[in-house]
Amino acid sequence: MVVMDMQNLLSCSVLCCFLLFILSGRQQTVQGHRHLPSNIRPLKLFVFGDSYADTGNTNKSLVPWKHPYGISFPGNPTGRFSDGLVLTDYVAKFLGLNSPIPYEGWKSSSRGIPLLQYGLNFAYGGTGVFDTVVSGPNMTVQIDFLEHLLRDNVLTTKDLESSVSFVSLAGNDHFTYLRTNGSAQGLKPFITTVINQLAINLKRIHGLGVKKIAVTGLEPWGSCLIPYVTNTSLFQQCNDTYNSMVSFHNPLLKQAVEKLNSETKDSPFFIIDLYASFTSALKNEGSIKFENPPLKPCCLGVSSKYFCGNVDENGAKKYTICENPKSAFFWDVAHPSQEGWRAVYSALQPTLEQYFHY
Questions:
Q1: When comparing pLDDT for 110 and 331, which is higher?
Q2: Which of 2, 169, 299, 337 could be cross-linked to 308 through a Cys-Cys bond (beta carbons 3.0 to 4.6 Å apart)?
Q3: What is the mean pLDDT of residues 51-59?
Q4: How far is CA 193 from CA 94, 206, 221, 290, 320, in A?
Q5: From which residue to which does any coiled coil extend (predicted)?
Q6: Cβ(164)–Cβ(215) under 8 Å?
């Protein structure tokens, strides 16, 4: 899972070892060993949310389907909001799975059941629990897609009972509220409605049979750690409104997850702490170090009206790319690079080992 053109930002943003990405029935695999603890058995993975989780569902007219996205892996755009892998890919890697096929990729294929052997990814860049300024299915509709597959016997209850779910909510609802003239005074009540709807969605996924469900907290949007927030000030100034947004959202999410777990016998819900993992990675506290100034994205528009991947009417590039994407935590103004996500994943591994078990 802001002061720019939200249509473009949410389309190429949030708002929202390894694997493979399946496109048109073809799998692309990234090499790596499994990080699956011995007490976890292979599972399907069902993914919901936004651009931090999307591996190819977003409309193909938008920037994640354009060069230079995907230049690090697999070498061409795959619809991921990155130069390569995203958080979904690393979560699947941890589980010892190949990254599940995007729902849109499955629909455009022969729709064969074997393509669903690793689960399915329903996440669309720019979406939230409610409708956002980006035209894409909100989380309720994404869950509807899964329910329809159960109803049509494409998936079975057994498939879901042997699965886990990853849910990404990175802020698109909040930014849509602010962009559509929502008041600062009304932000906290609005966030409460977001958390309430998210809780309904999480409970619904569990009710369909999924045994373990991870949901992301908000990353540090207001801290001087996200280039989207600091872009117009040459990556220097922070934003008190976004600080307030995150500091209210994350504790409220924690309360909601605790309540959901108290209502079940198996405590299936847990939070992926993007705030702490982003902060740790950006401060170079882990084993992966970033030489590029951490707030400067590798791929950056030549002015505030352009974004990574934009070209003019003559096809001329309106963006620049850093020499080494591995040196930059951020790929564009809102999304980590493949190496950035690897650093975040490294910080998250203890949490995944603690909660993704049976």
A1: 331
A2: 299
A3: 97
A4: 32, 20, 20, 37, 39
A5: none
A6: no
Q: Which domains does the chain have, with CATH numbers?
A: 6-289+341-355 (3.40.50.1110)
Give the H/E segment covering residue 165.
Answer: strand 163-167
Amino acid at 320: T
Write the single-letter amino acid at 162.
S
CA distance 6 to 200: 27
Q: Which residues pair with 212 in a beta bridge?
A: 164
Residue 239 to residues 171, 212, 226, 358, Cα–Cα distance (Å): 15, 35, 10, 41
**Type of residue at 45:** L
Phi, psi torsion values for 163, nearest 5 degrees? -130, 170
Q: At what angle do helices 240-262 and 187-207 cross, to 10 degrees?
A: 30
Whole-Å CA distances, 200 to 126, 143, 203, 260: 20, 11, 5, 9
Nearest Cα to 23, choosing from 137, 135, 131, 99?
99
Q: How confident is the model at residue 259 (pLDDT cuts 50, 70, 90)?
A: very high
- Catalytically active residues are 51, 332, 335
Q: Is the pTM of this model over 0.90?
A: no
H/E element holding 22? strand 20-23
Report angle CA 6, 12, 14 to the nearest 5 degrees: 70
* Residue tagged 């892998």 (tokens): 85
Which pLDDT belongs to residue 29?
Answer: 35
